[in-house]
Amino acid sequence: MTQSNSYDNTERAIAAYFGGVAGEAPISPGFWPRLRARLAVTGEPGPTVSEKLATLWQRLTARPLVAATAAGVVALALVSAITLPSLLDGDSGWKLASFAASPDEDAVSGSAGPRGPAGAPGDSATTLSSDSLSVGIRLNDGQDVVNVTSGGEFALDFALENETNERTSASPTTTDSPLPSPTTGQTALETSGRAIISTSSLAIEVDSVPSAIDQLRTIANSAGGFIETLSTTGGADPDRGNAIVRVPGSNSLTTLQRVKELGTVIGESVGSNDVTEQVIDLKARLRSEEAKETSFLELLGRANSVSDLLSIERELSRVRTEIERLTGQLSFIEQRVDLATIHVNFGQPDNLAAEPPSASLAMDTRDVDDAVTQLKAMVLQAGGEVDSTSISLNNGVLQAFVAVRVLPATFDDTLFRAAQLGDVTAKEVRQPGATSDLPESDEATARITVTLNQSESTRNWWVWAGAPGAALAVILLLAGTYRIGRARNRA
Amino acid sequence: MEDHTAVALSRKGDTEAFRVLVERYGPVLQGTAYLTTKDAAIAEELTQDALLSAWRGIGGFLEDRPIKPWLVRIVVNRVLEHQRRSKLPTMPLDDAPELRSPDRVAEEVEARDAVTRGLALLDEDHRQVLMLRYFAELTTQEVAESLGCPEGTVKSRLHRATAELRAIIGE
């Protein structure tokens, strides 16, 4: 009763009360003899943990067949626990099947025109004719099918608010929107509520750059868009001009077509970038920061001391800065999604010819470091040069950025091989006509920039690590339940 | 004989060593059972059952841990199981004064009456926590283990219960 020394009066009174009441039922003299008799019937105490393990081992070794079967079942459980997540993850062969079943999944880029022999399994799901707009598909081998535009109009129906069902079902705004116009055979991208930034580039040879720029302005205005930036070289009588035109997504293909009529098209590319996940992520972060702001404001009303007040205000200002930053990013992306971007490069005949091809690629890969090493080796082997490499770790996701230059003659080949290093998520190629028409060049002038992101399945390494643990837990649970049940039955 | 020696010997089937433990903790265990059931015969039966379970399971008990909370826990489980089975409502502690012998009543009559009244006002959960803490003299952590609830819950119940009792006694 050492503890009772530190009790206060109340606690002592409680202890005394309980002690007094319990004293009414003291241990009877027959208590121990009766218990000893029962112990004698029960026998020795149960085995210790180490003894139980030893017994289990003995039993297992005595029945090798049972032990082997049990080991097989455990191994099977472990193997399926490890492999199932990766199969469900949609790696390699499984992705195509899921795509064929739901054509709007993974529709990442839009392009129009005759589909080349690269037409992939699964594109029948999009049922598009050769002279109309087609949906670019991310293929299993990591290649995007991006074909040349030839007339048509594509409407980007992007429902930002439709976040939750963006993968499983198309939003009402997408399915109900008046997409195709039958007279021109136009159709639209089935974006299923995805946010897609579309970017096109054109290189056009014109007789007069200033007049072409005037016409470009008229085209942009009539399509409800504008010229975002404009630059010319060559003084008062410019021989070269660069413009960035922004038009509503629904008018971008007609605009592209009208711009092409300004002169002779030397090169063109159509690219798109799926930013749905980025938008969802930004919105989620924004909501969370806004919730934080609300709770800090509540706290501010209840702050008692000056130091509390100051620290809450400091947090509040940090949260508000973050909200502004996120809002800014979101509106930038929304603007890019609403308005398609067209880069137009005008030049008089002599000035455009020597433009080397260039490309940018974004890929998901399992092993970023390995992909970077392979890419560098590939480029150096082809006589190219590596301009810069940067690898960063952001939110636990490894990302690499590699800028290389290759000989224009090896551009196509290098691009094709680079695309094998992972799953291509975005691709943009600027090519002035066919590469074979280019003058032979010994200099590595064709630029390729590659962004490599660590793919989801590698990121979720804990699934791999956790699966065997989960299997073991299930086995232990079953064994425990069995033991408890047996003990109950005995009792 | 130290507890851990008695436990070690009991594991090997030494009933005399187990007897040391029974004599040392029997009163607390039976008192705990009696405080809840208010029936001396049932309390003794439940304590016997609990000690028998302890004997059977002592092989799985880790020697270096304190034995008392473990034994109290077994008793508490037995008592709860008994209450569930018999579906008998717990008899409130305010009936207790009638059971007490006159000489005990004479002691600190004032304070005890106040405690009795106070305890009668408390929930069963709160009374149980007070009992394990001040009668069985378990630490809050051990009380939590015995009842299978978080230590924070035990602490808050203890705090509320003693505060209420203090207010009543202080009146």
List the topology elements:
The complex is a heterodimer of chains A (491) and B (171).
Chain A: H1 9-22, H2 31-42, H3 49-62, H4 64-88, H5 93-101, E1 107-112, E2 133-137, H6 172-176, E3 196-205, H7 209-222, E4 226-233, E5 240-248, H8 252-260, E6 264-274, H9 276-302, H10 306-338, E7 339-347, H11 349-352, E8 358-365, H12 368-381, E9 385-394, E10 397-406, H13 411-418, E11 423-430, E12 446-454, H14 456-459, H15 461-490
Parallel strand pairs in A: 3-7, 8-12
Antiparallel strand pairs in A: 1-2, 3-6, 4-5, 5-7, 8-11, 9-10, 10-12
Helix pairs in contact in A: 4-15, 9-10
Chain B: H1 3-11, H2 15-37, H3 40-57, H4 67-86, H5 96-99, H6 102-106, H7 109-121, H8 124-135, H9 140-147, H10 151-170
Helix pairs in contact in B: 1-2, 2-3, 2-4, 2-8, 3-4, 4-9, 7-10, 8-10, 9-10
Q: What fraction, in percent, of the residue positions of chain A are helical?
A: 40-55%
Class inferred from helices and paired strands of chain A: alpha+beta
The major beta sheet of chain B can be summarized as: none
Q: Give the overall form of chain B.
A: globular
Radius of gyration of chain B: 17 Å
What is the makeup of the main sheet of chain A? 5 strands, mixed
> What is the approximate shape of chain A?
elongated
Mean pLDDT of chain A: 71
Number of helices of chain B: 10
Low-pLDDT sequence parts of chain B: none
Please, could you describe this protein's structure?
The complex is a heterodimer of chains A (491) and B (171). With 491 residues, chain A is α+β, with helices and mostly antiparallel strands. Helices cover 45% and strands 21% of the residues of chain A. By secondary structure, chain B is mainly α. Helices cover 77% and strands 0% of the residues of chain B. Chain B is globular, with a radius of gyration of 17 Å. The model of chain B has no long low-confidence stretch (mean pLDDT 80).
